[in-house]
Protein 1
Amino acid sequence: DAGVIQSPRHEVTEMGQEVTLRCKPISGHDYLFWYRQTMMRGLELLIYFNNNVPIDDSGMPEDRFSAKMPNASFSTLKIQPSEPRDSAVYFCASSFNYVDEQFFGPGTRLTVL
Amino acid sequence: GNSVTQMEGPVTLSEEAFLTINCTYTATGYPSLFWYVQYPGEGLQLLLKATKADDKGSNKGFEATYRKETTSFHLEKGSVQVSDSAVYFCALGSGAGSYQLTFGKGTKLSVIP
């Protein structure tokens, strides 16, 4: 099993640019989670999906952030326009239904200049 | 709401020392409890878990016991190795159909030879 796959692993962009982060969950998993990790705030849940449907997006910091899951094997997190304070490591995680153990991807380190 | 409090780091130990990282939680119902580990540059990995009171989770020499009376899930290892240097996160599964995890802020462990 390849595990959760995220791309790119590193992204450097300039303020105001659009950024798209990608995630492929483990096959057969029903839940997909997007997290952000910073030194100041630790690990924050941004949004999660069940069977491709967004269930709770209360952690999305502002309207500049959006997430989609067009099918069971792909999700995106988009930031438009990006700001320096968005610099963080973004993790995607997935899990089976009825099991609360989550499997994390390697993360995308985003730097907004 | 649910919350997790874990001891602040960083923690620096000599090889073969005994490790304890404290974790307490606040939750309604009967949550599952987890310890995740994050090695440098990687995503979080499940280290161990316990799903009900008095359960002991164990893996790679690490142990933690689910103590409902003290709402605690302290992580212990009898003899740490340099390879155990990482950030350790205590987490609580809300269950009840939401499958969200609430994470502590993480404790950085450095083991020196």
Protein 2
Amino acid sequence: SAVISQKPSRDICQRGTSLTIQCQVDSQVTMMFWYRQQPGQSLTLIATANQGSEATYESGFVIDKFPISRPNLTFSTLTVSNMSPEDSSIYLCSVKYNNEQFFGPGTRLTVL
Amino acid sequence: AQSVTQLDSQVPVFEEAPVELRCNYSSSVSVYLFWYVQYPNQGLQLLLKYLSGSTLVKGINGFEAEFNKSQTSFHLRKPSVHISDTAEYFCAVSPQGAQKLVFGQGTRLTINP
């Protein structure tokens, strides 16, 4: 299995600021994924992060709002930029490893 | 495109009773099917998956699910639930050959003593 850690586990931020979430996996993986889980709702894919190339964003998500870095095969960051209360969610990192998708514990973000 | 519908947002049951959590999907291509569980304040954990072969799939913690292609369903069952099964359960599909998962809205399973 793949073990994923995320930092921070939770944060409370002011409107208009930005937060960078880190995701570390204990195995080398080709693809990493970032999901958002809004309060009381299901998970929605934000983007797929490939090492050495630009991230691929899903409909409704743009790079200016959610810039992603993928410097190597075990690490990725997601930045939530110019935050508003509507960005309050749990952000989860995920990887596909041995044909199974593993999820990190999530980062619980509250924007005031 | 794919979509997943979990027909019940909440399911309350008594301890040791059987439970079924319903999941229907829509897709124009063949898909793989998954059930994930999210315990309070924790990340998602894979319960079981259907990739091919037998339509009855057994997972962890005594759960099983049956893939019904004609009804495009993948319902999750457990013959006798325990208090520790209290969690949010998510059904998900992945188009064969693709990497991403499309999730249903989730079903909150509450076990009453």
Protein 3
Amino acid sequence: DTGVSQDPRHKITKRGQNVTFRCDPISEHNRLYWYRQTLGQGPEFLTYFQNEAQLEKSRLLSDRFSAERPKGSFSTLEIQRTEQGDSAMYLCASSFVTGLGEQFFGPGTRLTVL
Amino acid sequence: QKEVEQNSGPLSVPEGAIASLNCTYSDRGSQSFFWYRQYSGKSPELIMFIYSNGDKEDGRFTAQLNKASQYVSLLIRDSQPSDSATYLCAPPGGNNFNKFYFGSGTKLNVKP
């Protein structure tokens, strides 16, 4: 499978716990994006990387959220001290730098905070 | 003003009809536009993009762009029940147009 992969697909955690999600982009893609989607809404941009550099972060990304892409390949998104409002689908997408920039999405990680 | 506005629907059309989905955007600098389809519980799937004014056809799908009016639409001809999904419009935005601003999407129901 050469598409974007995410792990885990589902995560249930208790409020206050830390969680970490992983995204493996399409191998030739050097841009990687994280989005969050809640029911009935479109995906909201959180952050993106070009290679290993984090170039932009949304103000939605509070201090409890951190993302890394240490070697310019896979990325992790960590949420510390989870809150019930963090319950959402977390989507990862990747794209080329060149071209029109069309983004291809992974299957997502559904987070439920109890 | 939201960056992207879409009618949330649901838009109901009978099988075989033309479904018309609309999107307006606020950033005049947006040059290319993407349409994604999202089935319930799944992630968005890219179905079309357009970057020039006018129409672009791909199979049963036609995207229409009017930059002067900041309006983009998606027409689905010969709608099938399998087309029932939420359709998301995504114009790039941000400092370098590197991120997508998604609308909330239009839910399409195609009735057999």
